Description:
single chain, 275 residues, alpha+beta, 434 Repressor (Amino-terminal Domain), Beta-Lactamase, 2 domains, five-stranded antiparallel beta sheet, 12% strand
Amino acid sequence: MIRALDTTQELAAFLRSRRERLDPHDFDLPTRRRTRRTPGLRREEVAELAGISIDYIVRLEQARGLRPSAEVLGSLAQALRLTSAERAYLFDLARQRPTTPGRPAAAAAPPLARLVADLSPLPAMLTNHRYDILAWNTEMSRLLLDFDTLPPHQRNSMWLCLMRPEMRDFYVDRERIVREGIAHLRTVWAAHPEDEALSALIAEFATDPDFARLWDERDVKVHGRGRKQMRHPEAGLVAVDFETLTPLDDPDLQLVIFRAADGESQSALDRLNAG
């Protein structure tokens, strides 16, 4: 069961998971004769690479209440060869990165709602960091789902993908879509540990076996662009390229815009929008 974020426990688990993913042969470390009984680097090897005492590494991985400085986190990130997204996640867990004050947006500001509508005929929608869908245009609702018919708590793109039965086969590469969504949710989970609604959503999603399995991998990366292929019940296969933009005044919001990835997909979108 996934509970509200305990940053100390998650920091410990994240450090262990990243240490265990590393291949000792990729590092210029002294050869040790004893057999490795666990995957990845040993704690003492991480301590050596990071210039931190072994005892400190042990206490961090045992969640013993340490509050590492930005300097220590930077050394750990370098030693563990974290990606930029993983590094940001580590700093968020340790509360060493500035956070945006205020409550998460629950509705679209009128100028943003108008912008979403004005993007027609491109399918577009506005979401908050939880993937709650705050605004959408007609083209997006025709492509995905008629959001007007849904109760507000179901207007969440991840909820629809995981929990709505008829959407389970909608995406051709469902596992990749779920994996990327989970990486985003884990990232914002660390940035918003006080968001009880987000924690409740994640706990609900964890009842899905695919979500629970992928969540435990602790991937953290936000995908701002890419391609999705969909099995639309009326239009057939539709491939779209998506772009995600963030308003400067509302950095926790995401404006998602779809474009047809090929001529056949454009024809399918034209047929949907003509109906």
